[in-house]
Predict the structure.
Amino acid sequence: MMATIRDIAKRAEVSIGAVSRILNDDPTLSVQAETRERVLRIAAELDYKPPIRRDKTKQRLTLALIMAHSRQQEMTDPYFMSIREGVEWQAEKSGFTIGCSFRGLGSLTLEECNRVAQDTDGIIVIGYVDAKEIHALFPKMDHVVFVDYQPDFASYDAVVADLVHATENAIDYLVSCGNRKIGFLGGPKRQVSLEGHTDCVESVEERANTFQQHMKALDLYDESQFHLLSDWGSDFGYQAMKDILQSDQELPDAFLVASDMLAMGVLKALGEQGLNVPEQVRVLSFNDMQGAAFLHPSLTSVHIYAREMGIQAVKLLYDRIHSSREYPVSLTLPTKLMIRESTGGEVNTVYSRMHI
């Protein structure tokens, strides 16, 4: 028998309404962090799955939301949360009901796949989930949009950020500032299996791959300054920078860091060793999270329109359902480089170079 919100409320000793609002990430709910964590923990222990509902009285369409990342990963990285919030905002505006959400490794069973296929009009997939697995799980579902990942599978729409040009632009900016020795720190690109396969396929992430190619084209690439980490959390950036500083390796003029979360750890490690940013080493990052401008020093970062990516995904889904379009559409959103103190530039200016 499947667990219900009532079951969670009873074990957590809170009201049913509070449980519902916590599980739905209601931003207006004022609740202690301990209570929120207890409810989420009990929901996970009971393997709670939200019911799929179709609002027949209002003739609203229903979409399913599939996310490659866990709730914990989303809570620690505002990038993923921004994409989801964009999906939810535009879904409401476009007349969609989000019937169910699934997160991460092994989150879909055969029974749930059958329910989604029967009661859902479309699917939005956030993150690196193999399109071939989506096709195998939902062979008759034509209305699928991927966000933050461009699948090779030719039938699905996709919304991504232009990370290739963003990385080239970031390197060009650092070089224009006189930097020749540029290091790189980035995380892995792991494919998540919804069916629970333990073997995740890893490939070189776009920023890392573009860094290598562009630096080689500029005849500036140094393999010893290229660092791929096992995860994206700030603690991994912190430990990686500590290891670099404790090694005999010569410190580069600047570091290009593949996410703000990693960069937060990098800045902390540099500060603990008494190294001044940007006087002794510059730091440039990606995502431009809301707090980037309030770090010390404020963080130069590539602004990615994460919330807009979620919004555009719902628009593509709406168009695919309501039009006769049979061909897939890939939408690539631009980025902009926000200059701040960590690279020594004029604060809150935008750097861009035309790519032809």
